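Aim 2 progress update. The chain analyzed this quarter is reproduced below.
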Amino acid sequence: MNELTETVYVIRLEEIFWGGTLLATTMAIHGLGMLMVLRVAGDLNRRFASKPSFVKGLFTLVLASWLIMVVHLLEVCPWAAFFRVVGAVNAAPGNASVAFYVALSDYTTLGCEFTLVTHWRLLQGMIAVAGLMTFAWSTGVLLTLAQAFQDQQLKLLRERRARRKSSAE
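Predicted structure tokens:
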């Protein structure tokens, strides 16, 4: 009889409420983070505009990638804190590192050997949804920056070719 009760799972409104709250928090952090990434990249591009180069453009793109990664790591923190506070992880109680590891693994949809306790199980899917949405947004931001970098490099290449051609004539 005890095994049967352990396998029964019913979605609770509390899970939906906390999952929605954590999802909203994740999206707010991501929105602010992406604006910061775009601002930093824009500032660097303006600073390098007088003498653009491949290295400077690539530096801006790599720095933006790092900042995006940091934003994603920050977005996992509220989930991990929640998991720890409510004791949601089926692991050593109160272990912040395991809570962060579980949250990050589920956020990336990778999953891990730890699961959430039965009455918080829905949050594993909801954190994956948050990760999918924010990774799509990050991809859009990174694509925008990469396109600007490629356009700049193609423009520099055309200018070099035009200078070579005019000096050869």
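The chain has a mean pLDDT of 91. The CA atoms of residues 43 and 58 lie 14 Å apart. These observations will guide the mutagenesis experiments scheduled for the next reporting period.
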